């Protein structure tokens, strides 16, 4: 059974948020941390995992990603604060 993840990353100063979808959260966040791929997260040093949700279906994960991206910054902050109030990098717990 496959598992899919919608996740939120931030930078060290907590000023930038990034939302993504993956089927392998540990590998993908590791790629963000290593700067493997050129793009937004490497440019802005966004690689700390603050929040994630799990889905059995890729379409549900993508729909949630789009919903989060369309929401306000405050809604994203509220999600993170409810899930990870100390804003610790959850990568080590994966």
UniProtKB/TrEMBL annotation:
This is GIY-YIG nuclease family protein. Belongs to the UPF0213 family. It comes from Hymenobacter sublimis. SMART domains: GIYc (SM00465). Pfam families: GIY-YIG. The lineage of its organism: Bacteria, Pseudomonadati, Bacteroidota, Cytophagia, Cytophagales. Gene3D superfamilies: GIY-YIG endonuclease. CDD domains: GIY-YIG_unchar_3 (cd10448). Residues 2-78 form the GIY-YIG domain. Coiled coil: none annotated. It comes from the Bacteria.
